């Protein structure tokens, strides 16, 4: 039996858990009934995340529905990445939710999360709960 032939595969299997220890895929929303409600200004936008769907809406436009994908979690941040088919290809939505105090001056309210949304390359900033 040639042990050196299998060494790279065995090494990879051994080291794989250590390489991803700081970044894990999780689904903290499943079974809890909780969801994220996020919003921002300049321009005004609204984002709702549930385990069934992710909806993004600009004040000036229609509500767009994306499929829910479990977030990747790292330290105090969750990253959601999802897409949907549109007439000219795909529309991407990348959402970063950071567990950090956020104040919305228009609402005059403090929220527990800072939120950044990247919709097809256009960035939106706001707060969430």
- If you compute it from the alpha carbons, what radius of gyration comes out, rounded to the nearest whole angstrom? 19 Å
Largest sheet: 10 strands, antiparallel
Treating each run of at least 4 consecutive H or I residues as one helix, how many helices? 1
pLDDT average, as an integer? 80
Shape: globular
The computed structural class is mainly beta
How do the SSEs run, as a string of H and E? HEEEEEEEEEE
Number of domains: 1
The helix content, as a percent range, equals 10-25%
Strand content: over 45%
Oligomer: single chain
Please give the alpha-carbon distance between the first and last residues: 58 Å
Q: Strands across the major sheet, in which order?
A: 1-6-7-8-9-10-2-3-4-5
Annotation, overall tally of beta strands:
10
Unreliable stretches covering 5 or more consecutive residues: 2-33
Explain the overall architecture.
The protein is mainly β and 129 residues long. It has one domain (23-128). Helix content is 13%, strand content 54%. The protein is built from 1 helix and 10 strands. It has one helix at residues 3-19; strands at 24-25, 36-40, 45-49, 53-58, 63-67, 72-74, 77-86, 89-104, 109-119, 122-128. A 10-stranded antiparallel beta sheet has the order 1-6-7-8-9-10-2-3-4-5, with no helix packed on it. The radius of gyration is 19 Å and the shape is globular. Mean pLDDT is 80; it is low at 2-33.
